[in-house]
Amino acid sequence: MLAGRRILLIIGGGIAAYKTLELIRLLRGQGACVTPVLTRAGEEFVTPLSVSAIAGVRVYRDLFDLTDEAEMGHIELSRAADLVVVAPATADLMAKMAGGHADDLASTLLMATDKRVLIAPAMNVRMWEHPATMRNLALLEGDGILRAGPDAGEMACGEYGPGRMAEPAAIRDAVAGVLGAGPLAGRRVVVTSGPTHEPIDPVRYIANRSSGAQGAAIAAALRDLGAEVRFVTGPARVPAPAGVTVTRVETAREMLAAVDAALPADAVVCAAAVGDWRAARDAPQKMKKTDGRPPALEFVENPDILATISQRGETRPPLVIGFAAETEQVEAHATAKRMRKGCDWILANDVSAKGGAMGGPQNRVTLITAEGAEHWPQMAKSEVARRLAARIAETLG
Ligand code: CTP
């Protein structure tokens, strides 16, 4: 998949650096040549010897390693690669990148390169959520820096949340996707995500608890396998992934129109928690408490995007996938929902409070197809996404 592709791999100073050794092995397993660069802090976590033993080449550590006539200069080193990968990308490395520093070999290479850069952030959850890191991330994304992860889960420091470096296999897939070598290269997939906001009046709306995390993870996983992703999202709490085409909508009707505009596609994944109903009248002015009585809200049904696309006839995409948010009898209700909506697959998840799927980092899903039900164990939403993307790639061939 990556035969002959050259990866410049910068290893930052985080506990996740030990996973980068596995990443090198996986990249080389696909035929890539990996040139490792170890930062000073990185050396505290993995030794130059172990990195070079696994990479099969020397490790670059110091800017002044490169002053020797016989060695490649830093400009050349940064450009000889097809892709620059930073894993783990620590809070400090991200800050240096965002600020344009060039005071050591890694930061100088990142400044000098004319190639795309993919970062795999890894840090404590508080550091990840710190406004400074979020600000730096926004700057980096604005600069077109690509990103794999971080995942949410248990961390080496004992805390729980987003900040864990993406699994090496996910980073390898992201590399393949960026280099156009993934199994979904040349395929287009539309993903809906997030809640919808259905207006009642100019200041009030009906919403739901969807964070958009599962949809964003699916879009990222499909992108990582090389798909061209059209991401149609309601007002989600989780940011849209880099490297996908984003259309932001508010209401179910806007979402359907945006999905239509994104078609044709090889597959559609409806992960959005679309509001089933909207207020029959969207009051043009703020509703007032005039006579002391609460207003009677009347609802009308929204268009069902999944059912509409599934029942399209000739222009129906070959693979249409929905979710089923259920709070009881998950498998039975989801199986009936697959038939009723006319989609190919349903990923059923338990959204009761005990399931913790809505807003939480984990999900337990059952994949319902024409062949029956397949129960997946509880796993991170990013892992559900990766499994689903791999299954889509297998099915589209
Ligand atoms: N969906 C949609 N458009 C809607 C409602 C739902 O595209 N107006 C999609 C969702 O994105 C999801 C699937 O349909 O993929 C099932 O959503 P769910 O809320 O579980 O089902 P409902 O159709 O709302 O059925 P019910 O409320 O009866 O469970």
Characterize the structure shown.
- There is one protein chain.
- By secondary structure, the chain is an alpha/beta fold.
- The chain has two domains: 173 residues, Rossmann fold, CATH 3.40.50.1950; 209 residues, CoaB-like (Rossmann fold, 3-Layer(aba) Sandwich).
- Helix content is 32%, strand content 23%.
- The protein has 13 helices and 21 strands.
- Strands 12-11-8-13-16-17-19-20 form an eight-stranded mixed beta sheet, with helices on both faces. A five-stranded parallel beta sheet has the order 2-1-3-4-5, with helices on both faces. Strands 6-7 form a two-stranded antiparallel ribbon.
- β16, α12 and β17 form a beta-alpha-beta unit.
- α1 packs across α8, α4 crosses α7 and α8 packs across α9.
- Cytidine-5'-triphosphate binds next to α11 and β16.
How would you summarize what this structure contains?
With 397 residues, the chain is α/β, with parallel strands linked by helices. The protein has helices at residues 17-29, 48-55, 74-79, 91-99, 105-112, 125-129, 131-142, 168-178, 213-224, 252-262, 305-310, 330-341, 381-396; strands spanning 6-11, 33-38, 83-89, 117-121, 146-147, 151-154, 160-164, 188-193, 198-199, 205-206, 228-233, 245-248, 267-270, 277-279, 299-301, 319-326, 345-350, 362-363, 365-369, 372-375, 379-380. It has an eight-stranded mixed β-sheet with strand order 12-11-8-13-16-17-19-20, with helices on both faces. Strands 2-1-3-4-5 form a five-stranded parallel β-sheet, with helices on both faces.
